[in-house]
Amino acid sequence: MSSEQRATTIAQASGSKASRESALYGLGCVAVYFAILTLYAQSLHYAPLSLDDQSQLHEVSELPLRALFVWDHFGHFRPLKNLLFWQLVRADDLAAWRLAFVSLFMVTAIVVQLFATRVAQARWFGLAVVSCWALHPAAANAVCWLSAVNGVYALCAMLAYLLLSERVGRASVGRLPRSRADPAARAPALSPRVLSQAAR
How far apart are the C-alpha atoms of 100 and 54, rounded to whole Å? Predict the structure, then answer.
């Protein structure tokens, strides 16, 4: 077998291995997100309001829209949560409320996976992280307790910001002139005579 044929065979084997790995990773993603959706879809009909959800929904229902952007009766400034509750009260459908929270949780899970994959530069690591995070028993609190939505959308927004800022930063560096992007390019060129003198 010639060297060209050997190289072609190696390239084909590598491509086949990469295709199998991509297919396996895709199946892993489908399995993980199907498990997440199956687990939290149970809350659409079997999760009543808990803890302080009732009091907060009642308070928000009596407020005009402009009053949602001030301190609430717990002493916290949470305009996004208050706005979400204000809309939920007008929907007057517990299943719709649960669906909104499950959807937000699924979006956050995707962002968590993307962030973990970017940090570790390993997509299987990202899938493992989102599996541990989303399927952990403590995560049920973020879906079944409406008032815990603060942590979900805060995590989603923070990680999305870090992902986008890192991408924008790399794109900006790529557009810089080489003299600004690479500090070494700004160093003056040294002649052989200067280098020989420095070596002494």
Answer: 17
Please identify which residue in the block is written with the tokens 């070494």. 184
| Angstrom distances, CA of residue 109 to CA of 36, 37, 49, 66, 102 | 9, 11, 23, 32, 10
Per-residue pLDDT of the chain (200 residues; tens, 9 = 90+): 566 666 666 666 666 777 888 899 999 999 999 999 998 888 777 667 777 777 777 777 777 777 778 777 677 787 888 888 887 777 667 777 788 888 889 999 999 999 999 999 999 999 999 999 999 888 887 787 877 888 888 899 899 999 888 776 666 555 555 555 555 554 444 455 544 554 55
Taking the whole predicted model, whether its pTM rises above 0.85 is answered as: no
- DSSP assigned state of 70: S
Joined together, the tokens standing for residue 12 give 């084909």
